[in-house]
Amino acid sequence: MATMNENIEKMLAAKTFAVVGASTNPEKYGYLVYRSLKTHGKTAYPINPRAKEIDGDTSYPSVAALPEKPDVVVAVVPPAITETLVGELAEAGIRNLWMQEGAESATAIEAAEEAGIATVHSGPCIMVGLRTHQRA
Asked: Where would you tag: which of 20, 25, 102, 111 has the fewest CB atoms within 10 A of its CB?
C-alpha cells in the first residue's frame, strides 16, 4: 500500500479530475477546488445534481454520468455523501479519491482501502498541493 505522500504525488500528477460537490457559488470550496484544477491545466468535471452548469461548464449529476472516467475524484461534500461515493467509484473502476478536509470519515477511508481505492484525507488541500506541485 502506498504512503499518503505517494498518493498525493500520484494524484497531483494526474490529468483528469471530477469534483463531487462542485458549487455554483464562487465563495464555496466546491467552486474554488473546481476552478483551481482548471486553472492548473487539468481536465475537470463538476458533479452537482442540482446544477446544470458551473463556471460555464456542463455539470453532471453523478460519477456514472461523466463523459469519461477521471483519474481522480475530489470529494468536497459531507462525510455521509463521501461514504456513498466510495461505492460509486469502486463500481466505476476509479482508483483515486482525494477527500478535502471535512469530507472524510473513518468509514469512507476504510471502505476505500477495502475497495483498492487510493486516498488522500485528513487535511491536505488539493489547491495548496497544486500550487506546490506546479513549482516543483
From this structure: 25
Q: If we measure between CA atoms, which residue out of 76, 67, 77 comes closest to residue 45?
A: 67
Domain-by-domain residue ranges, the chain? 4-75+88-135
Phi, psi of 119, rounded to the nearest 5 degrees: -130, 155
3-34 pLDDT, tens per residue?
888 999 999 999 999 999 999 999 999 999 99
The architecture of the domain spanning 4-75+88-135 is 3-Layer(aba) Sandwich (3.40)
Taking the alpha carbons of 19, 87, 63, 91 in that order, is the dihedral positive or negative?
Answer: positive
Give the 3-state secondary structure of residue 54: strand
